[in-house]
Specification:
Length: 90
Amino acid sequence: MAATDATTGIIGSDAFRLHTDDEQAMRQELHHFEQPRAACIEALKIVQRRHGWVPDGAIPAIARVLGVGPGDVEAVATFYSLIFRQPVGR
């Protein structure tokens, strides 16, 4: 697991940092599904709520938390039109 910054509660590398609150929310979502892959859409929504979109670096971070492959997360992210993979206007 990546290191956590004690002052910000952010997990991850310089490329993308997953907030600890977001990781906890994703882990909580795992309990609602039989298969970890089924939690992908909820995990993507969690990241999108914080950032307004899902950056490329979020895909492997989500995959690590859920215990699935990044390709699985990417497949879900690109399938659903309400998951934004690029910044959107306000």
